[in-house]
Amino acid sequence: MRPKITWPEGKRFAFTIFDDADKDRFSNTKPVYDFLAEQGFRTTKSCWLEEGDPDHPLGGVCCEDLDYLKWLLELQEAGFEMGWHNARHSSSQREVTDRCLRRFKLYFGHSPKTMSNHFTNQENLYWGADRLDHVFRLLYRLGNFRAAMRDSYEGHREGSPYFWGDLCFKQIDYCRNFIFPGMNTLKGCPGMPYHDNQRPFVKWWYASSEGNNVEDFVRTIREEEQDRLEAEGGACIMYSHLAKDFYADGRLHPRFESLMKRLASKGGWFVPVGVLLDFLRKTESGGQELGWLDRQKLQLAWLRMKLTRGSS
Description:
Blueprint (H helix, E strand, L loop, with lengths): L13 E6 L6 H13 L5 E4 L18 H12 L3 E4 L9 H15 L5 E2 L18 H10 L1 H4 L16 H7 L2 E7 L4 H4 L5 E2 L8 E6 L4 H7 L2 H10 L2 E6 L6 E2 L2 E2 L1 H11 L8 H9 L6 E2 L2 H18 L3
Parallel strand pairs: 1-2, 1-8, 2-3, 4-5, 5-7, 6-11
Antiparallel strand pairs: 9-10
Helix pairs in contact: 4-12
């Protein structure tokens, strides 16, 4: 059990979002960020640097669209963080990833601090069954057969044309891994951010709470969960795709809007993912090597949820 944290500025809890770039358009994302900014939230917005496969179902706008890039720079100036969600929305070999990491630094003035793998990209790091050890890996493949059929992730495999693990270790601090259903992410992963010597190309791993689409998101941050997070003095990192129906038909999703206004009124510490993880890494329980027993507990908890709920 992690000791209760004393949050900066006398805040009672922490909350943020890592927003994957899937299906991004101005029309479905800018209004969401305008709302978040108005309510005092500062979160992490990932982006793609180059166009990928035009037929990919999860594609979206990228930084080659200069209007989009201008908007991202405005978000950064307003206090939002730019994150990495792979170089583009389809698989990228090493030279593409390297080029796009350099573009990211050119555009935003620094390398990305935080990242999440993008679904089925081959260059994903320690993804699919490789998130797990030994028997858990076998159970994942047996119980998640359809996903296992495309389970070829090579970003951490030296010699693969998709290898970029060394680039990740040098340039990116935090990579997302396991996702849990409750709002207090620290309950699912008390030691985050942590290093895992079995997966050495990532400096520090972090977990997140389930918010894949707007329905998942509002279920996770419902009123009783907000009150529990505040009472526990915990921290929430929501995994989400804010382009997935958070804004549709000319309006914000009503339940999302009301719940986020309620959360904003509670006086939490609302900072980007990288800022939160930097803080947690300096606390007593964060920033440590993940021990064998804690690794097994973490993997078992996620695998159980993955096989019963189908979570990411």
